[in-house]
Structures
1.
Amino acid sequence: MNVLDLAGVGVRLGDAEVLHGATCTLDARTIAVIGDNGSGKSTLARLAGGLVTATEGRIRVLGLDPAREPARLRRRVCVVFSNPDAQIIMPTVAEDVAFSLRSQKLPRAETARRVDAALERFGLAELADRSAHDLSGGQKQLLALCGAFVRRPELVIADEPTAALDARNARRIADHLFAAVDTRLLLVTHDLGLARRCESAVHVAGGTIVDAGAPEEVIAAYEDTLRC
Amino acid sequence: MLTLHRPGSGPWHRLPAGRKSVLLMMLVLGLCLLPTSRTSAAITAIVCAACFAVPGVGLRELLRQLCAARWILGVTAAGQLLFLGPEEALANTVRVAATVALCGLLALTTPVSTLLEALERALRPLALLRLDHRRAALVLTVALSTLPVLAGLARQVREAQRARGGGHSLRRFALPFLVLALKHADALGDALAARGVR
């Protein structure tokens, strides 16, 4: 099943056409989305996460139509944003992770077990009762990842998850993202080193997909556009 | 900052969230209905202190709560002194202080997720009116949880103003704060959707 199927997809936000004629079929475990600021990368990620609706064309995410099957999409797909502050919903670390399981209506013991396991996996177990808002930027982003992965999604869409982090934390976050072998990853990034670690890449420019394929080729073509 | 739950095993911690909320609500109501006098103020202060002077909480926590609410208490006391007189000012300010502290006691001894569940149960009758009680409880909880974020945004705006040499101006503060708050609301909506909340 393809991760993303786009055929002539366009998105209008008010009067602005932020995505148009986007067409591609992506099927890899890890996919990088690269491009300049304002090129439409985040809109593509939000479209795939069902956070914005296509105004034209046909889109399928893991075979699902986000507009017609939003609940099924939300069960299988998680989105992580670049600003970790905006993702904190509950006051403490453990409660924030547990909040992600709220929609799954699991028994209390099962929720606690999964939360503990996720906190352990992301190195947050000792911070479980700390205020989520008082964590460092890197810890907050780890919390956001933890909140996404605890739901055991099939696809994680990460929109520049390392953008505001130092090199050490950025590497930790990236390692966690790539270590999840049973989860597919759609990674929007400006870090071409991270994009190279993916199995496939997409170049977005001027609100449309201009290139897709093997990361080395897509990145080389993108780097050519950077030369003055 | 929003009062955070402190894990513990004291009597307040062991009390179920629903019963605890009702008990504290009744206590606050009872204290507020006492006549406005020095004696009532003393009774209110003693009851409030007794509620905190149990294992797992402590009087230091009471002081912390009152310290956090010092501006509200100060404004209340000043207004009452100006318009009513010292005895009424004392009684009413102690009432407000006790209300703030006892609400804080609920938050201190109950995890927000447990409060959310209790709130959901309490709002269940709304389903008879075809209202989504789960969503109503979630809205209230998210509103509470957003308070520290709004405090952070306010600090951010003030620092940006100072960095540019700006003085204190409510108008210059209000507009960027409102824009940031709305942007945060937008991001929060996305974060909720990203966590599977309709």
2.
Amino acid sequence: MIHLENVSKVYPNGTEALNNITLDIGKGEFVFIVGPSGAGKSTFLKLLIREEKATFGKLSVNGRDLINIKKRKIPYLRRTMGIVFQDFRLIDKMTVFDNVAFAMRAIGEPEKSIKKRVGTVLKIVGLEGTENRRPRELSGGEQQRVSLARALVNRPEILIADEPTGNIDPELSFEIMKMLVAVNRRGTTVIVVTHEHELVRKFGGRVIRIAEGELDSDYFISTKYNPQKPAPKPAGDESAAPPDDDDKQQTDGSAEKPEQNGSSDKEGGQQ
Amino acid sequence: MSFSSILYLIKEGFRNIYNHRMMSLASVVVLVSCLIITGSAALISVNVNSIISSIGDEDQITVYLKPELSDLDSIKLGPELSALRNVDSYKYRSRDDVLKDYKKSLGDDIFEAMQGKGNPFGNEYKLKLRDLSKYNETAALIQKMDGVDTVSDRSDVAGKLTKLNYFVTVVGLWVVLVLAVVTLFIISNTIKMTMYSRRFEISIMKSVGATNTFIRIPFIIEAMVIGLASGLISSAVILSLYEPVRGAAAGVISMIGPATQTAEQIWLPTLLVMSAIGMAIGLSGAVISMVRYLNKEGGAILGK
């Protein structure tokens, strides 16, 4: 589903944000992207949503070549994705309903299906009955759930969550993560960028660690949430064993070396 | 695009205007000022042209024959005049006809004593010219003929009006150009401000896959509505002042009255042209600011 081959990104000011990244993310995987600040995690996401173009290498998402994609085709690529932002990005002057509906209106969906689908998705994220409330009347966790509902309402194949729990307290973070796992179980590929090792340990799954713009490690943590879903082996990375830091620690499962060629779909896991 | 999307985008355009009503009002005021000046210059030009062409319609020159020239000699002069290349046709008017005309316009009493041999006027010819621009040339030829006293001279008025029209057109064009640039600047800033204040929404729209066209439409609607409103307001101002100004000008120079366009003749073209110009300026301003914004800062989604 997502294929990076020797991808590098150098910004016009000379900053080398990513260097020679090679990895595959299969359909239906649950992946954490971790690493210190400035490691290149955000650039990685920007490449995936084609906010930035890779300087070198090959990059494809859902079969679309993101290096040679035409500008006018980019919106259609993004329609296959949902994005959850750290700062929620909710529009204060709109109600909860309109915030979620906004994502559908922005791609020209008819009002009839908007009404139907927004109601359903709000139910999924547990916000039924809050349709007419304003974001400021909600807690941080609820606001992030609205943001999640907005990301889900267009039925994305890939859900990208950029530090989704960065602005909410630990208890609510847990709730948000549980929802992301639930979304993943419905078949959506979920990519979560986070700094919170505790959540990674708790929820497990494939963990890709980026450090100084390079793929530092790619391993799998098995937990009760992600019981048996090993990550694919990143191509060209022989030292993909978990590093000796917090990220590789296990909770109730074990850290595994990545296996060949991302066979996660076939192995069930969260499906 | 579905019907509900179109409605949604139109609504968004009007919402933009309402949310930035002060800036929208400023844009309308500047654009109205620009359009009033543009429209006035255009109407002056149209009317000067109209006066010139009315002179052109009266492309006749009067050849006054010497009073002592006999009627027979006067009549003989007719074919000679028509032989001139620039003379299209001619009409003979006897001294009695001329006197009748004066009596008609100035009253019978004064001319009572001038009947018969007391008539001081000579016979005359009204000539229709083929090309008014060769007026001086033709007049000089006629002037040389025997029995011709004087030839009426209208070339001076035509020349002055042509110069005035040129002046109005050139000055008007520069004024319009300068004001158009100022207006474009103001409108593009209004749209840029609107886009900046909605950058959050724009980034969300981009993140969910809205096309640039979809994102642009409300801003285009906003700019065009501002342009249209300005066009209508400036047309209303110009049309309400047109007849009083025309009447005042006709009071000073009598030929302005019949030769110029009436409000009835100009209201529809004025309304349509001004509205179209207003919308075109609005649209251009919006396009300038949007292309730059969406290609640069407005392209960010994650924005870190």
